[in-house]
Amino acid sequence: MSTEIEINSPKRLRHLKLVGIVALLVAAGIVASGMASRVHAKQELTTWSAQQAVPTVVAYTPKHDADSQALVLPGRLSAFVNAPIYARVSGYLHAWYADIGTHVKAGQLLGVIDTPDLDQQLQQARADLQNSVANEKLAASTAHRWTEMLKQDSVSQQDADEKTSDLVAKQATVAAAQANVGRLEALESFKRITAPFDGVVTARTTDIGALINAGGGNGPELFSVSDARQLRVYVSVPQDEAAAIQPGMSATLTVPERPGVRFNAKLVDTDDAITPSSGTLLVQLSVDNKDGLLIPGEYTEVHFDLPTNAHALSIPASSLIFRQSGLQVAVVGSDNRAVLKPVSIATDLGTHVEIASGLNASDRVIDNPPDSLVSGDEVRLQGTPGTALAERRAAESTHG
Q1: CA dihedral in degrees (382, 387, 391, 397; nearest 10)?
Q2: Is the CATH number of domain 56-67+311-398 2.40.420.20?
Q3: Nearest one of 215, 214, 249 to 235, comparing CA atoms
Q4: pLDDT in tens, 46-97
Q5: Where is the protein found, in the record's own terms (predicted)?
Q6: 87-194 maps to which CATH number?
């Protein structure tokens, strides 16, 4: 019995060792397979992450604008002629005959002023003139008699000369008195306040019995008359657009209270100077207002059609990159890598800008570039590369 156990024991041990080795190899294979799977998964994750890190961008080619540019600026309407009417004589307002809103003709009576002190001054001046005329007649007859007596040697030459000089002095006194009467008569004519031209009374700041003080424009006016059949429009044009503004240009006006209605205006002139405080050029236009649809003093929008720059390229403002190094635009290179180009703006049109330098017509400009984008970064184009700018504008107008 003990002999069988001793014989079979070495064979059993070898079998168990073989089984252990096989199990060890299987375990090692399983571990190696798991490690290889993890390494492969990590490589795939790294590759996927690298692919996801490549930004997907939309690119388009800039185009020249064939259409004219619309420049919209705020403006102010003003009457073609506006005259505040002041009193030239002092007194009390006797009556007024035109209130605000009254259409008046040139020379039409607006009011009358009572001037009792001026009336008395005129009467005194006329009396002084009569006295001067009487003295002048006496001096003339005296000088004539003394001249005749001088011929007969009845008086001396000195006495005759004195009478002749007295006549000249009396004649000068008459001329002065006549001038004084004329001056007071001219002042008397200002008692009647009349309209200086055809127009509308826009203000009446006096009433019957009010004390009127003669002034030169320092106090409040009695009436104000405006000619609104034609209006002036004043617009402040930015300095960047001042070179395109030329006399004779046409423009259109819109006012808030009449939506959809456009009024034609013509550029009359400019002040040929840039205002330092605002950096703008003051422009004056004229607009016909025979229908009375426009009101002096109201706000209006002025629409200019400016000619385009034949060499400028138009791109959306969303393509601009503002960084410390200056204004830049990102374009896609031939190797699908980003290239940042410094550019300068010729005209800012709001949603679009005209580039004066830095871009070529064949460049593929990236729209809405990522903030982290730098030159040399790989990019992935979405859709058809080189989308025309006209198609993008059409899409923008569709979506408002």
Answers
A1: 50
A2: yes
A3: 249
A4: 655 555 567 788 888 887 665 556 788 999 999 999 999 999 899 999 999 9
A5: Cell envelope
A6: 1.10.287.470
